[in-house]
Amino acid sequence: MDLFSRILDFVFPAACSYCRSPLGDSGNPHFCNACWSDFSPLQGPVCPSCGKPFGSSEALTDSPEHECLSCRKDAPHYDQALAAGLFEGPLREAIHVYKYRPVRSLGKPLSLWMAGQVRVTIPLDMAMPVPLHKKRLRQRGFNQALLLAHGVSERFKMPLNYDNLVRSRYTRPQVELSGRERAENVRGAFSLIHPAGVCEKRILLIDDVFTTGSTMNECAKVLKDAGAVSVTVFTLARTTE
Predict the structure, then answer these.
(1) Are 107 and 32 part of one and the same domain?
(2) 109 and 126: one domain?
(3) CB atoms near residue 157 (< 10 Å)
């Protein structure tokens, strides 16, 4: 395949990035209708704090507020973590294509799918994306969490605040680290330019993937220390760790 054909296939792919079947009339960049509809929504009983899926369908039947062992041992700074889907199958591939190829045009449809998986039942004052460091932003060209937050804020009709919470220290990519290393890696890495802007606010903190929750937990700590009333974490997907 010559260079022109490679570029054309990247911009206007002929096959689904996951199953490699023809895209046909799919309205979603790089994914056929079948794979897009096969995203795995997060269902069943989950920890009411961190959102970790419980293995048994009987979990929480007698004790709806029962938390997972990790949350009981070390309560997170955020109030609740929600995830739209499981980080597996076509959804995992879509996130990889979105972040690393990168295909920013996936941001809008992914954010709309994400917002469609949950109902907002508590009052929220603003949506905030987990920020990227300026160096990582230059490398990637866009903040994937910001595009997701933009779509979610529009769907839920809430203000979007994207320039207050900042990543003030460059860190190693979390994907390279273990659980304990992740927490240490992001400790002290975030700050607020205008702390008063979050005081007495109820915040929806948005990112793409929840793995150990270290990044969101550190962001929530900064927000709570500045007087935020509550921090609800909302991610496109989460692992089952």
Answers:
(1) no
(2) yes
(3) 7
The three-state secondary structure class of 214 is helix
Closest by CA to 110, choosing from 97, 119, 123, is: 97
Average pLDDT along the chain = 89
**Helix H or strand E encompassing 85:** strand 80-86
More confident residue, 207 or 173: 207
At a CB cut-off of 8 Å and minimum separation 6, what does 168 contact? 189, 190, 191
Residue 80 has pLDDT above 90, yes or no: yes
User: How far is Cα 241 from Cα 236, in angstroms, rounded to an integer?
Assistant: 16
Interhelix angle 144-156/107-115, nearest 10 degrees: 50
Token pair belonging to 187: 């400790």
Claim to verify: residue 59 and residue 2 sit in the same structural domain: no
Range of the domain at 182: 39-238
Residue 170 predicted with pLDDT over 80? yes
Q: Same domain, yes or no, for 28 and 60?
A: no
- Would the pTM count as exceeding 0.70? yes
**Residues 83-95: tens digit of each pLDDT:** 999 999 999 999 9
Pick from 52, 59, 47, 57: nearest CA to 179 = 52
pLDDT one-digit tens code per residue, 180-230: 788 888 899 999 999 999 999 999 999 999 999 999 999 999 999 999 999
The vertex-11 CA angle with 5 and 13, nearest 5°, equals 75
Q: In the block, which residue shows the tokens 């209708």? A: 33
Same domain, 12 and 51: no
Q: Specify the CATH number for the domain of residue 80.
A: 3.40.50.2020
Q: How many domains does the chain have?
A: 2
